[in-house]
Specification:
With 138 residues, the chain is mainly alpha-helical. It contains six helices and no strands.
Amino acid sequence: MSALGPPPLPVPPISVVIRCVGAGVAGAVAYLATLFRFLTYSQRNRLSAESYVAFAVAVLVIGFLAALGAGKVRYRIAGCVPLGVFVVHAGVIAVDLQKDPTDHNLFPFEFVILGICASPAYIGAAAAGLADRLRRRT
């Protein structure tokens, strides 16, 4: 430790930041396109399982593409996908509560469900790591 304090934290390369932002935005767009779709709160409560499966497949592909060639930070990048979903969903909750304050009375569970549905992004990142290793072998 120097006299000036602890050493500064390492700054991630700009490519990691760009990948993280891109993964978060892509996760938000996937949420808006598959689960939100500008439906009312009551309509969103009646979404079919196919909508959630489509969302899971979308985040799996996003996780794969965002983490492909990223190296050891691939899971950090994949973690930005559910983060983007959470940010947009928080905005949706805020707008919905303006219309009807009794909506989203169990909103913490909504975030748990969305986190579970967005977790395939990590599987996509693992598949990207496998693809990177296979590509280096050849």
